[in-house]
Amino acid sequence: MSVMVARKKVVRKWEKLPGRNTFCCDGRIMMARQKGIFYLTLFLILGTCALFFAFECRYLAVQLSPAIPVFAAVLFLFAMATLLRTSFSDPGVIPRALPDEAAFIEMEIEATNGTVPQGQRPPPRIKNFQINNQIVKLKYCYTCKIFRPPRASHCSICDNCVERFDHHCPWVGNCVGKRNYRYFYLFILSLSLLTIYIFTFNIVYVALKSLKIGFLNTLKETPGTYPSTPLTVLTVLEVLICFFTLWSVVGLTGFHTFLVALNQTTNEDIKGSWTGKNRVQNPYSHGNIVKNCCEVLCGPLPPSVLDRRGILQQEESTAQEESRPRGTSAPEPTAAPGAGGQAEEGGTQQRDGSLRPPSAVPAPSLSSAEMPEEKQLTSGEAPVPSQDAGQAEH
How far does the signal peptide extend, from start to end residue (predicted)? Predict the structure, then answer.
């Protein structure tokens, strides 16, 4: 005889989240799926700093000051901390609409636009939203089935709507949005300082060695490793990496400093949202550089609305065979007849006229695919807007 037993299986919400993200450490780490360039970023930073600490720093600490490797270590640790914080965090992904919410939004749109004659193109799905006495259009996202909030956009790489979307950065392996922009800015700023620092003291190291043993002898010198490698190879490798990093990272830092001072995003700058032909002023700017920097870099950080580690429970029914001794039969319970000689409700009549009580096994609960995910929005947020699915806006 087999008995159905219900067993609860715990499922985290991150396992059912749509989009093209990957999760690690039980949902604590969230990244994009394309992480190859992120590993290259780690390799370049770790490799360059390892060579600098292994060779130049030891000589410079003795000849000049022991503070040189200490300051380099502080810059290195700060750059790595901000990089990992940017790469492993939720950039501000907006949850997609639940089926009931999507159906309600569709009904509202049909009621507003009315019936469109056949052959005619339906009007664009937008809503007008007023910010600082200026009208801002909220666009509808056909993938997330929502009206995106102001400054949000849909990333085609991660396939999610991101609040205050700046751009998708493959070097950090994640989108850059409202919840990790400040860490991204601090990362490129500290990396620029670290690059300038290593590049400068590489030149100082070669100059000091050249004054003592000559420039050619300095290039021929080996660092005492086996197999011995001329110092020129290691030094030139560091200088080349730092040189090309200076052109890219330092320039990127200057560009984002300009954006922070104007309280503007990369996406808005590329599209010319506030500098186009309409000459519309940026409604998010305070007209003051200090206030804009304080809002972008020091303002309160909103919590994630995904609730990645929230629990969804579903029950699995498993069949277990009940073993009984041979030659014995289990007693079959009987039920006393009710009024009028009828059996009480809830029993199952057997061949011998007795009744079997109803099964005590609870009905299986909804599967994780049928259970709606909780959608939590922070208070005071604007209605959620969107734009055409699948289109990356950088």
Answer: none
| 194-232 burial code (b ≥16 CB/10 A, e <16) | bbbbbbebbebbbebbeeeeeeeebbeeebeeeeeeebe
H/E segment holding residue 216: helix 215-220
Least confident span in 42-46, 97-101, 142-146, 342-346: 342-346
pLDDT at position 127: 78
The sign one gets for the Cα dihedral 95, 98, 101, 106 is positive
The pLDDT value recorded for residue 119 is 60
| Beta pairing class for 134-141 and 126-131 | antiparallel
Tell me the average pLDDT across 205-209.
Answer: 79
Distance CA 311, CA 49 (A): 42
Torsion of CA 123, 161, 130, 272, to 10 degrees: -80
How far, in Å, CA of 51 to CA of 338, rounded? 90
Q: How far apart are CA 340 and CA 345, in angstroms?
A: 13
For 320, phi then psi, to 5°, come to -120, 135
- Cis peptide, bond prior to residue 227, ω within 30 of zero: yes
pLDDT digits (tens, 9 = 90+) for 306-323: 877 777 766 554 445 544
User: Shortest CA distance to 375 belongs to which of 10, 16, 8?
Assistant: 16
The domain locations on the chain are 13-93+166-298, 99-111+119-148
- Known catalytic residues are 169
Assigned token pair, 153 = 């956009």
Q: 8 pLDDT band (50/70/90 cuts)? A: low
- Nearby residues of 378 by Cβ (< 8 Å), 6 or more positions away: 302, 303, 305
Let me know how long the chain is: 394
Instruction: Give dist(CA 229, CA 223) in Å, integer.
Output: 7
- Of 321, 364, 317, nearest to 3 by C-alpha is 321
Query: What is the model's pTM?
Result: 0.72
